[in-house]
Amino acid sequence: MPSPASKIGKSTLAFNLAGALAERGPVALVDEDSRVRSCLQCAELAPLPFEVLSPEAAAQGLKPLAFLIVNSEGRPSVDDLRKLVRTFETVLMPCGASRLEIQSTLNLWRQLRTGDELEAWKQCA
Question: Whole-prediction pTM value?
Fold first, then answer.
């Protein structure tokens, strides 16, 4: 399911994680990748043990969940990522295997770990 544009497998990770977590409790996967919407497309192919929603459907309200997974666009802005880090318990950022991709991801995490975020990270460590 990787998008031909990114080839990192962000949507594949979100989809597989939702399937695995569904064994532990109710899961919703919100597909916010408006370019591809591959999670929504795959959800039409067969019944799933979790719910796949568009952002519009999710905005209407969610039933009680054990897990909420958001498949974001390829590279959200730093401000959007900071909001995600503040809102969610866990944020996964798939990364390619090249040195440049790894360095870019590490630099992004450093940007996210400034100010309030850094204090929160220190408390969790």
Answer: 0.74
- Reference 109, options 87, 71, 78; nearest CA is 78
How far apart are alpha carbons 112 and 85 in whole angstroms? 8
C-alpha to C-alpha distance for 59 and 94, rounded to whole angstroms? 25
pLDDT single digits (tens) 63-101:
899 999 998 877 777 888 888 888 888 888 888 889 998
* Strand stretches in 21-106, DSSP E: 27-31, 51-53, 67-71
Q: Where are the domains of the chain?
A: 10-74
d(CA 121, CA 119): 5
Sequence length of the chain is 125
